[in-house]
Amino acid sequence: MKLLAIESSCDETAAAVVENGRTVLSNVISSQIDIHTLYGGVVPEIASRKHMERINNVVEQALSEAGMGLKDMDAVAVTYGPGLVGALLVGVAHAKALAYAAGLPLIGVHHIEGHISANYIEYPQLEPPFLCLVVSGGHTHLVRVADYGVYEILGKTHDDAAGEAFDKVARAIGLGYPGGPKIDKLSKEGNPRAIAFPKGQIADAPYDFSFSGVKSAVLNYLNQSAMQGIEVNAADVAASFQKSVADVLVEKTMAAVRNTGMKKLALAGGVASNSAIRAAMREACEAEGIEMFCPSPVLCTDNAAMIGAAAYYEFRKGVRHGLDLNAVPSLQLGER
Ligand code: KG4
Ligand code: ZN
Predict the structure, then answer these.
(1) Global confidence as pTM
(2) Confidence check: pLDDT of 75 > 90
(3) Which residue has a Cα nearest atom 16 of ligand 1?
(4) What is the full DSSP assignment across 268-327?
C-alpha cells in the first residue's frame, strides 16, 4: 500500500511517499529555518505563507522522486494537529484537495504519533509494545505504546518542552535559532560538569518533566556573570545545561522502563537527535539490558515519512477522515 503523506505543522514543508508504513520511497523536506532565523524563532504568519508557496512543488517532488503519480497512491495522509493552526491548515487543505481530486481516502495524523512512528521506518523489526520518549520543540512525553495507535501517556512536561528550553537557552547564549543543534555542537568543546544547573523534579509525578527551572537558572547565571563583569565560558554553559537535561531525561525514562517492565525503549522528536542525550540513554539501556531504538536525525526532526508510517497503521485500523477534516492546533495524543 502506497501513501502520499504531507506535514506542515511548524516550519518544514514536507511530503513523502511511504510503502506499507515502513519503506520510504521519497522524503522531501523544505525547511524554512533560514527565514525564521532572522527573527530568532518561528513566526507563524510567515510559516503559513511559506508553506503555501512551497507545498505544490514539495508534493510534486515527492511523487516524482518515488517515480509515481497521484494515481499510484492508495491514500493521502496529513498532519492535522497539534501545531500552528495557519501552518497546519495549508497541509490539511492541500491533502483534502488531492484526496478529492484523485478519489483517494484521507487519513489525518497526530504529529506526535508521526514522531513515534519514525521508529517503524528506521527499525522494520520494531513492534509494540514499547516505551517511547518523545522530545521535540513543542512536546516532552513519556508514552507506553501498547499497540499500533494505542498510547498511554505516563508523563509530560508541566512547562517548557525540552526543545523549547534548548532554543531559549541558545538564544540567551547568543547562538541563534534553532538552538538545539547549536548547543549540541558547542557542548562538545565544553565541560558538562563546570556548572551544576538544577534538574527539574515534580513532586508526586515521577514521570513528569519541568524544564523552566533549568532554563531560568541558565539565564540567572548569565545575568549575574554580566553584572559582576565575569566573562562566561559559553561552551561550559551549553554543556552543563545539556547534561542537566540529559540526566533528567535518562533518570525518568529509565525509572519508567523499570516500573513498567518494558524491554524496548524508543526515542522520538527533534531533541532525540541530540548526541549527548542519545549517548547517555544508550549507556543506561546497555547497563540495564534494554533494547534502544532511535531514528537517524533526519527522521527525528519534522518530516512527512513519519506521518506516512503512522497513517499506514491508522488506515489498517479503518481510520478515514472526511473532507470536513480541520486543523486541530491542540489535538491530544490518542484523540481522533
Ligand atoms: O520534532 P521537531 O523537529 O519539531 C517539533 O515537533 O517541535 O523538534 C524541533 C526541536 C527544536 O526545539 C530544536 O532545537 C530541537 O528539536 N533539536 C535539538 C537538536 N536538533 C533539533 N535539540 C537538541 N539537540 C539537537 N541536536
Ligand atoms: Zn515535530
Answers:
(1) 0.96
(2) yes
(3) 270
(4) ESGGGG-HHHHHHHHHHHHHHT-EEE---HHHHSS-SHHHHHHHHHHHHTT--B-TT---
